[in-house]
Every structure is written in C-alpha cells, then in structure tokens.
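Input.
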Amino acid sequence: MKLLAVTTTIASMMLAIACGSSNETKQDVTASTTTVDLSSNPDYQKGLELVSKSDCLTCHKIEEKLTGPAYKEIAQKYAGSDTAVAYLSKKIISGGSGVWGTIPMTPHPQISQADAEAMAKYVLLLK
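Output.
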C-alpha cells in the first residue's frame, strides 16, 4: 500500500512538472523552428548577393555575434522603424561606432547608396 502511494505521488509530481513546462517548451520550439522562406524575395536575393561579394561576413554572421552584431540582432533592433533602411545604408557607407559597442564599423565608401539600401533591406529581413 505504501509503495502504491509513493508511486502515485511521484507520478503525480512528474505529471505536474511536465504539464507545467510543456507550454513554455512548445512555444520556444515553435518560435525557434518557425522559419520564413525568403529565397524568392527579390530584396533578399539582391542583398544576399551584395553581402556575399563584400567583406561584411568578415565581421558579421547571421545568427551569432562576431566582431560586429549578428544580422538577426540588427534586424530585431530596427524592426518596424520607417527610417531603418536609410539609417543602416548610411552606416554601411560611412561606418561608425558606439551603437553596438566600442569596436568601430569600417566605412565602405565604394558601395553605392542603392547597393547599401539593398544590403540593409536584406539584413532587416533576417529578423
């Protein structure tokens, strides 16, 4: 009888723990595994092409901080901002420091305004 009571108590505790955390786990997995296929988006295609041909990937990665912030961090920070493309394209061309720390971003004056805007649009899509 005692063994049955102990077993029932342990089983109830395990069930309560499992049920209590299942929503969080389910939401976390859903949020992290939900992806949007951007491969047919022209802004994505053009920006990816330009970023791949530049030195951007020397300092940036999509999901991890390297020397500079991850593209996803940048996209999240500026999501919903009407001026994000203009601001980021200016940063790409002029460089700067202080927004993400003390390490300066190298200026890229050889990149045209149109190309910098396409690169900024690409980064903003990665949120």
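The first helix runs from residue 2 to 33.
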